[in-house]
């Protein structure tokens, strides 16, 4: 969705809809998903945007690896990286929090400062306007 109060585009990414890492050819599927995400961002985002990652209702096998997330960020051109205002992770598990915390020294300070956690959808609504209708039912 789009919002006029300085947010620009708000993109929701629901981990509960990702494939489980145990499926055959998981690497191939995730590589094509990476290309799809980056291609969609390039076509969709014209200005500033916020990425909201809904990790609720996702099994551990559905949470992408750190290396995959890093490749996603590196695959974006400079314009997309600069336009990213925040990455909000909703319902983060201890695993996701630990992964982000341990990876901070390896990330740029600019990007690290953009990562935020929201423990609930109510907390997310305080950080930015997200339509409840756009949140998948399992979350």
UniProtKB/TrEMBL annotation:
It comes from the Eukaryota. InterPro entries: CRAL-TRIO_dom (IPR001251), CRAL-TRIO_dom_sf (IPR036865). One of its GO terms (cellular component) is cytoplasm. Signal peptide: none annotated. It holds the Pfam family CRAL_TRIO_2. One of its GO terms (biological process) is apoptotic process. Residues 1-139 form the CRAL-TRIO domain. This is Protein prune 2. It comes from Nipponia nippon.
């Amino acid at each position: 969705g789009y919002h006029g109060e300085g947010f620009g585009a708000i993109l929701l990414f629901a981990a509960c809809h990702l494939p489980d890492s145990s499926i055959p050819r998981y690497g191939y599927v995730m590589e094509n998903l990476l290309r799809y995400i980056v291609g969609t961002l390039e076509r969709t985002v014209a200005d500033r945007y916020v990425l909201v990652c809904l990790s609720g209702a996702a099994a551990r096998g559905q949470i992408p690896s750190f290396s995959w997330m890093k490749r996603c960020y590196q695959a974006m051109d400079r314009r997309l990286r600069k336009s990213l205002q925040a990455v909000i992770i909703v319902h983060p598990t201890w695993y996701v929090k630990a992964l982000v915390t341990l990876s901070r020294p390896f990330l740029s300070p600019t990007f690290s400062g953009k990562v935020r956690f929201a423990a609930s959808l109510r907390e997310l609504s305080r950080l930015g306007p997200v339509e409840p209708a756009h949140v998948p039912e399992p979350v």
